[in-house]
Design brief:
Rossmann-like_a/b/a_fold; about 290 residues; UspA domain-containing protein; alpha/beta; 2 domains; Rossmann fold; UspA; about 20% strand; 10 helices
Amino acid sequence: MKEKIHPFKTILFGFAFSPKLRINIIETTRIATFFKSKLILLHVGEKTEEKLATITAILEEVNFNQLAIEVQWIPGDPIKVILDSCKTSKIDLLILGALQHENAYQFYVGSIARKLTRKVCCSVLLLIKPSEERVSCKNIVVNGLDAPDTPLAIEDSFYVANALGAQQITIVEEILQREIHVKVEDDKSLKKANIMKERLKHREDSRVRKIISEQCAIYTKNIKIKTQDIFGERGYSIGHYAEVVRADLLVMNAPKKTRFIDRLFTHDIEYILSDLPTDLLIIRRPN
């Protein structure tokens, strides 16, 4: 049986002195405790006595049970500083606060969280609803797309489910409508299309079950595992599904590097980044 993994040994949280600072620190230290990780709190800006007093008071209030915490102060461009820090500190998981809904300007120009998600060298957790009191993570939805990095995303999702005590994981297999290769014109072609759909569902389910048995067996105890086939636009379909079933966490593969033209025409994970259905964990393969 495969040995247990610890994918998130070091976590970085980039913080600003916003009204949500206290609640973000509480949520982040809670996550780091569950993952048994070292936590680096990074402020992109000058260190002042007032700022230091604020962050010290919050940390003294938080009960983090011997959690290793380091606070860093680095002035400069937020994106460059965070990207460089993730590399130099060998960060496994970057946690960022994110807006649930972006307006058109934010989508085309790109928020700091969106830009970091595309460029950073590690996995990213986007939090849209940090909470002072813990809200249990019960249902995790995971991308089951047939792609090279999907086995890693599924494996890490089982680790997270165990760490957070989640009760169910649903692996969503998004299948493009064009894979059916049948134009429905009458009852005969409709029947043929339905047969093709069933074959595709069986193929995808077998592929996902193989990943679970080979890479995740050690984590499956006490977790209900479901698979769900969806025919539709990749990214949009799984985001809509996660919202409908009220998932507590959505886990996706990291997006590939995109060109400006890709951002003009929404696709894949860009659908989710512009309208987050829940907290989003984006898994990126370590370099």
